[in-house]
Specification:
- The complex is a heterodimer of chains A (about 800) and B (about 130).
- With about 800 residues, chain A is α/β, with parallel strands linked by helices.
- Chain A is built from 30 helices and 13 strands.
- Chain A has a six-stranded mixed sheet with strand order 7-10-11-3-12-13. In chain A, strands 2-1-4-5-6 form a five-stranded antiparallel sheet, with helices on one face.
- In chain A, strand 10 (about 605-610), helix 22 and strand 11 (about 635-640) form a beta-alpha-beta unit.
- The longest helix of chain A has about 60 residues, at about 445-500.
- Classes of the chains: A alpha/beta (about 800), B mainly alpha (about 130).
- At the A-B interface, strand 12, helix 24, helix 25, helix 26 and helix 29 of A face helix 1, helix 2 and helix 5 of B.
Chain lengths: ~800, ~130
């Protein structure tokens, strides 16, 4: 975590007076997803483990680059640079190998880079120079705080691919190390000090989102973006979890609704709306119901119904019949009469005992009681008394048998009456009806017959009922059990999801607060870069009708972008589309330099490849100024394919070192300091004179041509300085110069401001500069075609003096 | 006037310059080669016109090139003019232009060699018909 960033966030948190949970969530977001989880789950954050402090990147200037067998460079070529702030221009025509230097530097420090992957197949195949068997890139660095030179070397084995190189860093007097010695890994994408022509074009082409990322990286706000994402993800994850839990809930509810089960119905009630998880859980975790409540209870009651005792019934029927038979056998036995008769006989016996007589005291028949009457009367009384007792007992037995039989017949059990809506009870109720009706049957025989014939169907119907009830109860359990376990599992997963859903509001608050704060911090950080970009643009735009206003970073996530407030001809809100390629490049440069030259960047150098292409001449002057400004604090190395930038640099008096690249046959790339064009041509002429093994005749043929080149360059310099300083438009001046083809025209333009007066020019030179120089002028002009027989040393000397005088004219 | 050196000799010198490995010649060779190649081309043009249009050597080179198409086949005249103009751009100082690269010069030299050969073939005195 970058200290400054967290401080900025903290300062805003303090001012914002947020609820403590929200603030805690914002802090947790910087510590990562786990911190948010544990904060929401436990109410506290585990202290994030502080990451090991990255080694501080070293600041470095480049003192030399040496390349072998890479791209356009075959034999080893060396670019010597001056370590320290300043401007170096390396000029060379397209194909001279200059871009190879720029690319080699980037490959050296970044290795295989995703950027290369975007290059064309031709580039990726052709990175190795075919004229040379070995590929090596080496740079010598002046590293701050390390005395002596530090050498960075990257090499490829024969046939190795671009991404399989070996790199080593050799600091002076220290053991060899890897790239990590420089500690540039993080800084490279952030401050990338390389800008190529193709990137200039693509920086804005790839759209405002890509541009946003390129700029945001440099702002060092990756953690901020990550924290925003962490909060957003935390919210989305919880929202998703809740959504899932509820959609499963809906499926479960519709399953439960199809169930004919009280437990299902009470689950549905508990699941609707805000789920009452505890209630639902209680229902689904209970085993088989223990109460007799509800349908399942009823089914269990049915299963538990006692059947009438079949044996008792048949016993009762037999008893009824036996008792009835016994009673029937005693038919005619008048028990009361017999008892009274016995009483009468016993009273008569008692009477004759007290008053002995043989005469009947009742009817006074004499002798009626004599003889054995007393014995017979005694026996008769006893027999009558016995018979009467028997008849009474049998009658009682029959009554008891009837009662017992009636006792066996109960009313229809309540459970059966309740079960009408649950099961088909018609058969059993039908079996009960004749059975119950027997309660009204008093006749023992009919009763016995009745119970005997009713009990069979009743037992059968009852047994069926119990079986059906058991089956139904089992079926319900079978359906219920899996659903109950589904619901139980759902409850277990729903509990945390719904619990954290309750924190969604907190998360949303934290998220929207951080989003707003991040936007502010981002633009605070970006402001100085935006300001500098606008300053650079104002230097570059020169006469452009495009005005650049505020540059802002807007939005996050997929909607993030850089907005450029572009005004064309005073019309605001114009799209980038109306800008010319040159203007777009200038805009890209405006955004590149501020970020590459931030104080925090360890790269003390900036490498720009071909920024001039498609720029109009006035922008080149602006660019020269921009480079001059940057070179006050940075080692600015610019590769360019033509002389426009060097010319502007020379004309504007900007201090710069200018080198020229040329590429010979076999990819031999050579570098030499670039002089001003005049000095260059004069030096070339002298080089031909002074080269020892120059074949005969060459000097005579060629030296006049170089003298003429020097004189033409002098005339161009003179024209340009005079006309630009009097305020002529740059494009107009260049147009005039481009129309000239012959030395006479150049000179007439320089001295007389009129190319048509070419014929007068030799005389004019003779008059104003002397006969010797006029001779040199003519010799140079004619000798360029025919060679020169005179003294070449004199020609070169006189031409050089004349050229300098013309340039100053 | 007659060219001081034969066109073929100038072309040979041009190739020699291109092959020079002297440190002092770093960056000098492109223009030196081009100057020699152009001179060879101009020499060949003058040679053919001296035979076909006696007196033409008194007019300017530009004029000589313009009347070349009257005396040699069109295609040859066009190609000669074009190469001459190309080499002239290098032999004059043009704003911002840098010295040509080796492959460019090699190409021009090959063209020049062919054109010089064709032109000199036409420079042989015409046999009366």
């Amino acid at each position: 975590m970058e200290d400054g960033l967290m401080a900025a966030v903290e300062a805003r948190l303090e001012r914002a007076e947020l609820p403590s949970t929200t603030a805690a969530l914002v802090r947790a977001a910087f510590a990562g997803e786990n911190a948010i989880d544990s904060l929401l789950a436990l109410g506290s954050i585990e202290e994030p483990v502080a990451s090991a402090p990255a080694s501080r990147p070293v600041g470095a200037y480049i003192t030399a680059v040496e390349i072998e067998g890479f791209r356009g460079i075959g034999e080893r070529a060396r670019l010597e640079l001056v370590p320290g702030p300043g401007l170096t221009l390396v000029i060379g025509r397209n194909g001279s190998g200059k871009s190879s230097f720029a690319e080699a530097l980037e490959v050296l420090f970044t290795g295989d880079n995703p950027r290369w992957a975007k290059r064309s197949a031709v580039w990726r195949e052709g990175w190795r120079n075919l004229h040379h068997p070995v590929t090596k890139i080496m740079a010598t660095l002046a590293v701050e705080g390390v005395s002596g030179e530090t050498i960075v070397r990257r090499s490829w084995l024969k046939d190795a691919s671009l991404d399989s190189s070996r790199v080593e860093v050799q600091p002076h007097g220290l053991p060899k190390d890897g790239l990590s010695f420089l500690g540039w890994d993080e800084a490279l994408p952030m401050y990338r000090p390389f800008l190529s022509y193709s990137e200039l074009g693509s920086m804005l082409d790839e759209g405002p989102t890509r541009l946003h990322d390129a700029v945001a990286t440099v702002l060092g706000l990756d953690e901020l973006t990550a924290a925003e994402k962490t909060l957003r993800d935390a919210r989305l994850m919880r929202e998703k979890a809740v959504k899932e839990v509820l959609s499963i809930r809906d499926r479960i509810v519709s399953n439960l609704e199809g169930l004919d089960d009280d437990r299902a119905r009470s689950c549905v009630a508990g699941l609707r709306g805000t789920p009452a998880l505890d209630d639902v859980e209680r229902v689904v975790t209970a085993g088989a119901p223990t109460t007799s409540q509800g349908e399942l209870g009823l089914l269990h009651r049915l299963v538990g119904l006692e059947l009438p005792d079949g044996e008792a019934v048949s016993g009762a029927a037999t008893e009824l019949r036996d008792a009835q038979q016994a009673v029937r056998e005693l038919k005619g036995t008048e028990a009361d009469a017999m008892l009274q008769s016995a009483d009468l006989l016993e009273q008569a016996l008692a009477y004759i005992e007290g008053y002995p007589t043989t005469d009947c005291p009742v009817c006074s028949t004499p002798g009626a009681l004599g003889g054995d009457w007393a014995a017979r009367a005694r026996a008769q009384a006893d027999e009558q008394r016995q018979l009467a007792n028997l008849a009474q007992r049998e009658r009682r037995r029959l009554a008891t048998a009837v009662r017992s039989a009636h006792d066996l017949i109960g009313p229809v059990p309540q459970a059966i009456r309740d079960a009408g809506s649950l099961l088909d009870t018609a058969p059993v109720v039908g079996a009960w009806r004749p059975w119950v009706e027997l309660l009204d049957e008093a006749d023992p025989v009919r009763l016995a017959d009745g119970i005997g014939s009713a009990i069979g169907p009743l037992l059968e119907a009852m047994t069926d009922l119990r079986r059906v009830a058991r089956q139904e109860a089992d079926r319900r359990e079978d359906v219920w059990r899996p659903i109950a376990s589904t619901v139980a599992a759902w409850v277990a997963s729903a509990r945390p999801a719904l619990a954290s859903a309750a924190r969604l509001d907190d998360l949303k608050k934290a998220e929207s607060w951080l989003k707003k704060a991040a936007g502010e911090i981002r633009n605070d950080r970006f402001a100085p870069i935006a300001d500098e970009a606008m300053q650079i643009w104002s230097l570059l735009r020169q006469r452009s009708n495009v005005q650049l206003g505020r540059i802002e970073l807007k939005g996050t996530g997929p909607a993030r972008k850089v907005t450029l407030d572009v005004t064309v001809d005073g019309v605001a809100g114009a799209a980038l589309g109306v800008m010319s390629q040159g203007e777009l490049h200038a805009l890209a440069l405006s955004l590149f330099f501020p970020r590459a030259t931030l104080d925090e960047s360890p790269f003390r150098f900036v490498v720009v490849d071909d920024p001039v292409q498609s720029m109009d001449p006035s922008k080149v002057d602006g660019l020269a100024r921009v480079l001059e400004n940057a070179s006050a604090t940075r080692q600015v190395i610019v590769f360019t394919h033509d002389d426009r930038l060097p010319e502007a640099v020379r004309r504007l008096g900007i201090e710069a070192r200018i080198l020229e690249v040329s590429r010979r046959e076999g990819s031999i790339v050579q570098l030499r300091p670039a002089l001003t064009p005049i000095e260059r041509h004069i030096a070339d002429a002298r080089a031909i004179l002074n080269t020892d093994d120059m074949p005969d005749g060459i000097a005579r043929q060629v030296v006049p041509g170089f003298c003429r080149l020097a004189l033409e360059a002098a005339c161009i310099e003179s024209v340009r300085r005079r006309r630009l300083s009097r305020g002529d438009a740059n494009a107009e001046v260049e147009g005039t110069l481009a129309s000239l083809t012959r030395l006479g025209q150049f000179a007439a333009m320089a001295l007389l401001d009129d190319p048509a007066k070419a014929g007068e020019i030799a005389g004019r030179i003779e008059r104003d500069y002397g006969a010797g120089k006029a001779r040199a002028f003519r010799a140079a002009n004619r000798g360029a075609h025919e060679g020169y027989d005179g003294n070449l040393e004199d020609l070169v000397r006189d031409s050089a003096v004349l050229a300098r005088e013309l340039a100053a004219a | 006037m007659t060219p001081s050196l034969q066109a073929a000799e100038l072309l040979r010198l041009s190739r020699q310059v291109l092959a020079l490995r002297d440190e002092r010649m770093t960056g000098v060779w492109p223009r030196a080669s081009a100057l020699l190649a152009r001179q060879a081309l101009e020499g060949a043009v003058s040679e053919v016109l001296a035979v076909r249009a006696p007196g033409s050597e008194r007019v300017s080179l530009r004029a000589r090139l313009l009347c070349l198409r009257e005396y040699v086949p069109d295609l040859l005249a066009h190609r000669t003019e074009f190469l001459w103009a190309t080499l002239s751009r290098v032999c004059h100082h043009h704003p911002y232009e840098l010295a040509p690269t080796a492959p460019e010069i090699m190409g021009w030299l090959d063209d020049a060699e062919q054109l010089v050969g064709d032109l000199r073939g036409l420079a042989a005195p015409r046999t009366p018909e």
